[in-house]
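Title: Comparing notes on inverse folding

I've been comparing how different people in this forum approach sequence design from structure. To keep things fair, I'm posting one structure and asking everyone to reply with a full sequence. Here's the target:
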């Protein structure tokens, strides 16, 4: 028996956003300089955003920059799983299990990245 590939597989991305902290113009410019290489900026909402469909070096760089902005400027960072927009040509998560693993890992608050319970 041969399986037929799903013509419309569900593809997921992680959407990472950072709401700009209220700051004096000089501090805002420092935030902008830090984040502009890894995220797009939406001026009306004063929010930086980026999508990633793989846990790779690029994703790590995005997260490091956004969390550095949070540490230095009080920027609020959020990560959520979203369906990949039509036309998304980059990598994407295609297995719901991959995202479930991320959510499970995220639920273990207070544990440094990479340190998980041994089963």
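Reply #1:
Here's my take.
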């Amino acid at each position: 028996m041969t399986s037929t590939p799903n013509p419309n597989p569900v593809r997921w991305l992680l959407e990472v956003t950072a709401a700009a902290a209220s700051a004096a113009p000089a501090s805002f410019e420092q935030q902008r300089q830090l984040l502009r290489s890894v995220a797009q900026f939406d001026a009306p909402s004063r929010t930086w955003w980026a999508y990633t469909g793989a846990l790779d070096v690029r994703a790590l760089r995005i997260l490091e920059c956004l969390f550095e902005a949070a540490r230095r400027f009080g920027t609020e960072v959020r990560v959520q799983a979203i369906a990949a927009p039509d036309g998304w040509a980059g990598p994407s998560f295609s297995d719901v299990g991959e995202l479930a693993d991320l959510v499970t890992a995220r639920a273990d608050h207070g544990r440094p990245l990479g340190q998980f319970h041994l089963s």
